[in-house]
Amino acid sequence: MDAPLAERLDAARERLKTDSFPAVGRVPGAGELVLHVIPGSHPCATVEAALRLKLVRYRRVAQLPGVSSLQQLARFGSRTVPGLRIGGEHVVGSRLILRALDGLAPEPPLLPSDPSARADVLEAERWGDEVLQVQTRVIAAGALARHPEAATSYLEGSALAGRLPERAAAAYIRALYAVAPRLLGFSTPRALATLSERLDHVDALIARGVLGGARPNAADLQVAGSLRLLLTLDAHRAEIDARPGGALARRLIPEYAGRLPA
Ligand SMILES: N[C@@H](CCC(=O)N[C@@H](CS)C(=O)NCC(=O)O)C(=O)O
To answer: What is the distance in A from the centroid of ligand 1 to the CA of 81?
Structure first.
């Protein structure tokens, strides 16, 4: 690995540490890029959009929710996806992966060079991860618990498509999402009650020029992942499509498998 790349990645990790960023990661070397995802996962969609933007080739490993947590613990030492393997090195967490990608493939950069614009984008990205992403997960999990039969629609186009009988998949998802929200302390009603406020915040960030510029940044991608997942929910599609945030999400992530009835 060349020195400037190692330095950039070290600097990224230091900054994320002081931001008390929860994910873990190791500085990647060179080699094949393998992205571990759960089909339908919004932070995974964020990372895939970044890889597309940078024209970086990667191999995608699709994992089932639930089982994925154990696979990730074993492979990455951390439960969640997205996880990116670069040669023998591992990076977990959408924000940390985007920092690593900027180190590996600097063009186009996902953070502005102007310090004040950069600070705004990093703060919007943090909010997109810690607030909007979490809330989107709660809303989508609640909808899946009510409509487990729709779960296989999220597998379309992935290596898992057609590999699970529909009824078995529905029973598995029903059981998983009956316990997961409680284990993780999810409250779907609370998440739904403040969704419009969150969408207003996205639109305000677009109006301020932090999001939605001609050159997509890390916060655009983080927010787009969540809004794009919400656009697959019949209950929220119209409200989001009527907003600038909806257009941004569709521009950055044109395709997103899956559909959940209202
Ligand atoms: N903020 C993290 C969150 C990742 C996350 O929670 N991913 C979910 C899928 S959307 C997951 O892997 N959940 C499995 C688990 O919590 O065990 C990121 O952006 O990478």
So the answer is: 5
